Amino acid sequence: MERSRGLFVWFLCLALLLLAFVAGQVNPLAFLLAGVLLPLPVLLAGARLGSRAALLLVLATGLGVFSLKPGLQVILENLGFAELLLMGAVITILQQRGVSPQRAIIITVVGLNLLVLFFFLGEAALTGTTPAALLAQKGKDLLGMLFKAVGQGEGDQAAQWLRDFPRAEMETLLPLIMPGAVVINSGVVAWLNVVWARQLVLQLGWGQPQPPLFNWSVPEWLIFALLGAGFLLLVPVQTVRLVSLNLLMVLGLLYFCQGVAVIAAWFHRFGLPRFLRLAGYAMMFLNPLFLVIITLGLMDLWLDFRRLSRPKDA
Fold first, then answer.
1. DSSP count for the chain of H helices, then E strands
2. CA angle, corner 233, sides to 228 and 237, nearest 5?
3. 30, 77, 157, 219: which could join 23 in a potential S-S bond, CB 3.0 to 4.6 Å?
């Protein structure tokens, strides 16, 4: 009985992943939604059945996608899809080997983005274009997808903002911040899926859940990297400024996660109802609260809001 339930969970996760792929091919909004939720079935299958089942799920999904549309082109067009599946598998393997959720997220994001950089440079070499030109082209493609997806709603505020913002300026700005934006995107997706998977595992009663992310904290020495990147913005060299800007974006995400951990610890301490917690978490991603949460994460380094006992060399 237990084995049959496990097989049902595995095939259900496989069906959800294939459905997400097919829906993403025909609907831009479904494509964007799949870009956030794809690691979740892999994490759930891994939590229920183990890391081998998670890897088999990734392989089976890849074979299923290839069978739906055989050819080399489908592989090249869906490398992002494969990256998200691999994200779920790697996090599962790391967590089941005793790595904390925070470290599993960081290791996975760093490793996957190095792999993305390798493929990006390889594509530039094979196509005979410079990395800057290829980055600009990918920025235009991404903007086109966003305009197509979000711009479908006539009364939607996001769609109206896209129509009012000069597209030429966006095409100029996006390639400059895309490296940092790619890292931030993968980091947020990994972080959200780990949180959601933990809650679902807890609700479904699938063994012992991973510890909460209340204790998320960045190393104290990282503040010097943040200050250094800020000072590098003053250097009158465009390349240095671009590197420092993207570095500031990535470091800002780390301190945002720490700020969210502080808020989560407060929510838990005061026993807030779940619907209030969900509303609070959603509001954290809105401007200007996003910047407030980052500031809270920075202040936690000195004020220690959660009263964490940290080693001095943390």
1. 14, 0
2. 115
3. 30
The answer to whether the beta carbons of residues 57 and 10 sit under 8 Å apart is yes
As given in the structure block, the two tokens for residue 52 are 């081998």
Question: For residue 51, what are its two tokens?
Answer: 């890391």
| 8 A C-beta contact, residue 14 and residue 60 | yes
CA geometry: angle at 31 spanning 260 and 247, to 5°?
Answer: 45
What class does CATH assign to 1-142+163-205? mainly alpha
Mean pLDDT per 10-residue run, the chain (314 residues)? 78 91 80 85 91 92 81 71 92 90 90 90 85 81 67 50 60 79 91 89 75 77 89 86 90 90 86 84 79 89 75 42
State the Cα–Cα distance between residues 86 and 286, nearest whole angstrom: 29
Residues in the chain: 314
Give the global pTM: 0.83
The torsion region of residue 103 among left (phi > 0), alpha (psi -120 to 50) and beta comes to alpha
Cα radius of gyration (the chain): 21
**Burial class (CB within 10 angstroms; exposed 0-12, middle 13-18, buried 19+) of 215:** middle
106-144 as b/e: b if 16+ CB within 10 A:
bebbeebbeebeeebeeebeeeeeeeeebbbebbeebee
Distances (CA, A) of 53 to 11, 88, 97, 140: 11, 12, 15, 38
Cα separation, 241 vs 226, in Å, equals 14
Residue ranges of the domains in the chain? 1-142+163-205, 212-314
